[in-house]
Write a structure and sequence with these properties.
Number of domains: 2
Number of helices: 12
Largest sheet: 5 strands, parallel
């Protein structure tokens, strides 16, 4: 997958640069001459790669430049024709379209979507639909995630068909999966178990290659959470401390974006 962050970095690196290669024709002869070629918002290939290679892998840079060429944000030119090609290689030059992206700091939304199979800022929150969990869900959605630019989705699993269709589609189409594993039924041991739907939704998220973040309410029987600690990221909270314990969730999501070279949601221009 081509990285939006690298593409933006290449565009911003080229913007404002002036490339002025010089070639000496017929050196040490009576016909000797020197010609200078000038391109605005451009850089020679070697200089551009040297500036980027300390931040990204070579193949990532290659893929990003190719994507920018295909979509018309930059072009490859050879000053002085074949002589320049042999002597100095290519110059990468921003098109007017590329300059507009550099000024704006973002790609137009239609082409920006080409970077992602799913919305990179979408979060599916699996939860029980009961009055006890309403405030907890509201806190996560309205106080934590939405102010940071994340889009929150949920699903109500009242029947098998709805689970298979509506909920599965939302889980598949979201980048992140959070699960509020809250108390539902008291066991004879004194502990609690959560809704069976939530365990199924966790499994569905794994089938779609998500990395679930499971938020487990204190009091859930360890028999029903022990395996979670081995396979998923796991945070335990209580009704009295959740605002403190869960406040770093947006930071965790942003770290994932940064690791995958995706611009943070506050940088997107909607």
């Amino acid at each position: 997958m081509v990285s939006e962050k690298i593409c933006l970095d290449i565009v911003s690196t080229l913007y404002g640069k002036v490339s002025q290669p010089t070639v000496r024709f017929f050196p040490n002869s009576k016909d000797e001459s020197v010609k200078t070629y000038k391109e605005d918002n451009a850089s020679d290939e070697k200089s551009l790669y040297k500036e980027l290679i300390f931040r990204y892998q070579l193949q990532e840079i290659d893929s990003a430049i190719r994507w920018l060429e295909i979509t018309g944000y930059l072009s490859k030119v050879y000053p002085f024709g074949m002589i320049g090609k042999n002597l100095m290689g290519a110059i990468y030059k921003l098109s007017e379209k590329g300059c507009n992206v550099a000024k704006k700091g973002a790609f137009i939304e239609k082409e920006r979507q080409m970077f992602y199979p799913v919305d990179p800022y979408s979060v599916f929150v699996a939860r029980q639909f009961n009055n006890d969990d309403q405030e907890l869900y509201r806190f996560i959605k309205e106080d934590l995630l939405e102010p940071e630019g994340f889009k929150v989705y949920e699903g109500n699993a009242e029947g098998l068909e709805q689970f298979r269709d509506s909920i599965l589609n939302k889980i598949r189409d979201s980048r992140f999966f959070l699960c509020l594993l809250t108390k539902r039924i008291r066991l004879e041991s004194g502990g609690f178990v959560s809704s069976v739907w939530l365990y199924q939704e966790i499994g569905a998220s794994m089938a779609f290659d998500k990395s679930p973040l499971v938020l487990v309410e204190e009091g859930i029987d360890k028999h029903f959470t022990g395996e979670l600690q081995k396979n998923y990221e796991y945070i335990e909270f209580s009704r009295s401390n959740y605002s403190r314990i869960l406040k770093n969730i947006p930071i965790r999501l942003k770290l994932d974006l940064e690791r995958n070279l995706i611009p943070l949601p506050n940088n997107q221009d909607n």
